[in-house]
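User: Continuing from earlier, I have the next pair ready.

Assistant: Great, send them over.

User: Here they are, in order.

Assistant: Folding the first of the pair now:
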Amino acid sequence: MSRGRKLFGHDRGLGVRWVVGADEAGRGCLAGPLVAGAVLFDLERIGPREVRALGALDDSKRHTAEERERLFGVVLRIAVRVVAVSRCVEGLDGRGLHVTNLEALSTAAGRVARPGALCLIDGFRVPDNGHEQRAVVGGDGRSAAIAAASIVAKVTRDRFMHRAAQRLPHWGFDQHMGYGTPAHQDAIRTHGVSELHRRSFRSVAYEGLLEPAAS
């Protein structure tokens, strides 16, 4: 049995026709936005051909960038609705990561949901958006809808970080996507923090670097 078929089996087992999945990318980064993705699947319109097309569907972290890009296109073709909600660094610093994350997930799920849909949220219960919801721990590896949302969120955010790397080349955002890798921390020590860095995060790489460096 393919991985995608197993994940769709989970969603069909819920006994509903309309399934929303929502997941985020970038929660643990030192720099860049948080992006929440959401998809709406009509399980009555997903047959063997669609399941085969998404046979490799899984948690976005288990795929290469090339595989995610391919799956992103398939998700756009098969899902009824797809949305990505981005929350900027200023908002993350001002409102806090956790609150912003829950709000973004709720908003994304609400934008694709339709009456009668069940919203599956990866790992969290989120603020009410008028639709039934369920938190699924490890959902990006259990639910087809959440796995598809994780692909949407990750691809959308990675594309943003690649564009940011062209504008702010000193920090290598196209290599680490804003995560706190050793190379990224070295770049911060050398060049300071950029406009995309989250000032509210506590990191040893930020010591003495309170002002943005010139790009």
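And the other member of the pair:
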Amino acid sequence: MFDKLFEVQQKAGEVKKRLDAITVTGSVEGGKISVTATGNKIIQSITIDADFYKDADKEEIEELLVTAINKAMEQADNVSQSEMAAITKDMLGGMGSMFGK
């Protein structure tokens, strides 16, 4: 049983490494503001189109930036859930042997 727990910890570490290598992007206004993050929800970059930046007011940029960040975080959640679902399925499949199945 401890072997299975250790295996779960190892798999979780592998998932974290995979999520670190996956990038997701949230963008608004046709890409005028883009936020790139990892699957582990670490923001890597924020880009704002120079022409848009000149013409937009502070409040508009702030609101759109929040929206872009939320979109990136939502995508990171989706990727993370998919990765965790895959590892859970693998682990549950292997647990059948613990119960003689």
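Worth noting for the second one:
The beta strands are 23-28, 33-38, 43-48. The mean pLDDT is 88.
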